[in-house]
Amino acid sequence: MRTMALDFGKRRIGVAVTDPTGILAQPLETIHRSSADTDTHLRRIAEIVAQYDVGRIVVGLPLHLDGRHGREADEARAFGEAVARRTKVAVEFLDERWTTLEAKRVLRETGSRKRERVDPIAAAILLRAYIEGRGA
Length: 136
Fold this sequence. Notes:
Layout: E1 2-8, E2 12-18, E3 25-32, H1 38-52, E4 54-61, H2 71-87, E5 91-95, H3 99-110, H4 118-133
């Protein structure tokens, strides 16, 4: 069963999926969000779930540095709940405080300047942490 990770943001959602064995995390794409059309990004997520036969979804939870939940974490939870309703796939949440910073570091180290790659790489880092946390 594949697992998908979503790095939720106000303007973009990074997407990563595991390989069919559920062991390797692979960055997939960036979904651009529109405040005018809230259904487009949910529709695209549902398409990915069907295309890759995703059985589990992990959404990054942006906690404060001290671990407290704030407005962004509440928005990520509401987003995850909407994804679960739309896809009929269980959604779990995982602390993602450092994923974007690590993704930017990876891009710097590889010499890439493509901003659109940050979000799926952050999702892959989140997914890798999830896999490692489950003992895979």
